[in-house]
Amino acid sequence: MFKNSYFSRKLHSLLGVIPVGFFLIEHLLTNYKAFSGGHAAFLDQVFWLHELPLVLLLEIVGIWIPLAYHAIYGLYVAYTARNNVSNYGYFRNQMFFLQRVTGVITFLFVAFHFFQTRLQISFGNVEQAAIGVHMHGIATNTIYFIMYCIGIVAAVFHFSNGMWSFLVSWGITVGPRAQRVSTYVWMAVFVVMSVMFILSLTAFMNPDFSQLPKMAKG
Prior knowledge:
The chain has 9 helices and no strands. By secondary structure, the chain is mainly alpha-helical. The radius of gyration is 19 Å and the shape is globular.
């Protein structure tokens, strides 16, 4: 289907940053409100996002279609790619292998998370204002909590390591020194984002999320 074409690879790489990478960062900042500001602040951020003009169109065109292409082509790459020991060392080949593994895990996690949250809201099974309460139920379930932690770490690693590859493939970090510095930078990003996401998840375990805050009632 894809034939590993130059255009397909470049589009896959670009969509991993714009808009999929931006969506991951936005998702992080929104959910981090649960940790930094509590239930009411989290809902304020959620309501602001869903009050944007043409929000459904923005989601479909700006998130779900690019995400679907990135995921489907990424699965194709994971299935067909082989490590390149002649051009890259052991560490980079390990990172490439982990990139493929975390890509599959992230795909499954995003699909599961979408089913549990956004799709349930669309079906009317969960009210928009009750998303914090819904997340409380998910976070306080031990199995779901572990699954989410694995999915979060996989998604953040996939993004961070993917950014390293993006900078190389687009000719931004061309020399060994630049690529080494980039490795350290994106390792730090991986750690910071993972911690922020997991703090956000643990924040949903707070009893304050077990019921609607006063500002969201009625």
